[in-house]
Amino acid sequence: MSDTFDFIVVGGGSAGCAVAGRLSEDPATSVALLEAGGRGDSWLVKTPYALSLMVPSKLNNWHFESVPQRGLNGRISYQPRGKTLGGSSAINAMIYIRGHKWDYDHWASLGNTGWSYADVLPYFKRSENNAVFNGEYHGQSGPLHVSNVSTDNPSHDIYLQAAREAQFRIREDFNGEEQEGLGLYQVTQHNGERWSAARAYIHPVMGKRANLRVETKAITTRILFQGKRAIGVEFRQGDQLRKLFARREVILSAGAFQSPQLLMLSGIGEATMLAAHGLPVLHHLPGVGQNLQDHPDFIFAYQSDKPWFTGFSLPALMRVLLSIGSYRREGRGQLTTNFAECGGFLKTRPDLDIPDIQLHFGTAMVEDHGRKRRLATGFSCHVCLLRPKSRGSVALRSADPTAAPLIDPNLLGEADDLESMVAAFKTTRRLMETPALRALQQKDLFTADVNTDDDIRAILRARVDHVYHPVGTCKMGVNDEMAVVDPKLKVYGINGLRVVDASVMPTLIGGNTNAPAIMIGEKAADMIRNELRMN
Fold it and tell me: What is the pLDDT of residues 353-382, one digit of tens each?
């Protein structure tokens, strides 16, 4: 079996699956895909409800934690990331959101030619197989299935009624011409099952394409170089230390935490920091691991005995068991829940040009990422700030490639973010205090005694965390000393090496980051194929 390929893709997450799947469509191009986790095809991954088992635990999950957060009273932020084929698309809430067109036009305005909304829209459409929407903004022939939620939960209508009572507009499609409004989310599901990036791009062709080799349980330890050209990777699989070689390129798709970690372990990063860990400096690139961004998020939660909500009570658990039949027969019902079935995008001030906050309305009470359980049922509403000013970092804990990186999202590190979250709190509370939603509430778990702005600031410092959207640590840029990759996603100062994942985003997009990560993989594959044709 050959150990040399045209391309080696490190990381089988959302972007990695897309780029590996697309490149291997050409039988003349050989691709190796390395994934640290397993195959990602178990019932845990396929059953949407099972995200409640994976997100809080180490099941298919790297289970990272941050350093203590100054803006959060020194609290440590929990950082779940997918560890299986499909990456975080195998454990996430499956929400299909692209972000606002302004976000991509902003990237282009920073000098990133080819990344405007008009440039990236074709790749969103190419990836998408939407069961409902078509036309100018949607595709219906791509590998990534997108559908409406299929829980048939009566709380949807109550949520929409609350939106009307709060005088927020109703939005049917958050990925169309306009984004502002509240409504029901679409999800990456098909027939009620999770449709991860691996199910879209890799599982259908594993073992069928002779030019695609997929290695699971393979932890990449470093990139191999000849001078300043990437020629392969070293990885550990079980007790074996192995090497694969790349004729053309090594592609890092290990995500916003581990792509910069692997660059640093391989001698690419800020020289002083690398030397402090005893690592030889191949190339001084100070932006590696900098510019970390994530959406700061606050959760309202309420106890409710309505049978539409889930939780840890005997009646709720009985409802889950009773729903197994309809799930197997029809792909509908409670087991298809993504726990964040409704939501939307709002402006905290009418003078804003675009929405600055996002809501996720959940069918369960959520506390500490689901790691704290209450013997009751209820519902939640997340509110996150879409474009925070705070910037964090990812650094090495040690030169040991198996050690988790030092993650510092710097949540609420900028005073403006705290004040923007105060406005976000007030805007969301307006929705939660409508007659429609008040009628469901038996007990306000966190905010009953929060009245003044100082009360709000205190509860935010005490309870804000992130909402699983880390980006930016290998930022794309031009004429920017902190840029790590150029608009072709090639690492500056190095040949034969690209980064293809959410770490290349120069700024955080206004929405969930899974669909954009897949888009990045699609676009990267296209750029690479075009270069191959030219050569």
Answer: 999 999 999 999 988 888 888 888 999 999
Q: Is residue 402 part of a domain?
A: no
424: number of Cβ within 10 Å: 26
Q: Give me the number of domains the chain comprises.
A: 2
As a residue count, the chain comes to 535
Give the dihedral sign, CA 315/318/322/327. positive
pLDDT tens, residue by residue, 376-430: 899 999 999 999 999 999 999 999 999 999 999 999 999 999 999 999 999 999 9
Q: Which of 106, 203, 283, 469 is catalytic?
A: 469
Annotate 350-383 with b (16+ C-beta within 10 A) or e (fewer). Answer: eeeebbbbbbbbbbbbbbebbeeeeebbbbbbbb
CATH of the domain at 369: 3.30.410.40
The count of other CB atoms within 10 Å of the CB of residue 290 is: 20
Domain boundary among 437, 463, 489: 463
Domain co-membership, 255 together with 338: no
106 is an active site residue = no
8 Å CB contact between 151 and 336:
yes
Same domain membership, residue 229 and residue 96: yes
Residue 483 tokens, joined = 């840029």
Of the residues 399, 429, 463, the one at which a domain ends: 463
Residues whose CB falls within 8 Å of the CB of residue 14, separated by 6 or more in sequence, listed in order: 86, 87, 88, 89, 197, 501, 502, 514, 517, 518, 521
Query: Which pLDDT belongs to residue 1?
Result: 55
Instruction: Describe the crossing of helices 155-165 and 415-432 by its angle, rounded to 10 degrees.
Output: 110
- Residue 455 and residue 475 share a domain: no
Same domain (yes/no): 175, 306:
yes
Which residue's entry shows tokens 């935010």? Answer: 460
* Interior angle at CA 24, CA 20 and CA 26, nearest 5: 145
Which residues form the domain of 316?
A: 150-184+296-385+413-463
**Cα-based angle 403, 501, 274 (whole degrees, multiple of 5):** 40
Half-sphere exposure of 84 (CA within 13 A, CB side): 27
In the numeric block, which tokens belong to residue 477? 């840029």
Specify the residue for token string 């692997």: 262
As given in the structure block, the two tokens for residue 209 are: 């394409």
Q: Does 144 fall in a domain?
A: no
Mark whether 277 and 419 lie in a shared domain. no
Specify the 3-state DSSP secondary structure of 469. coil
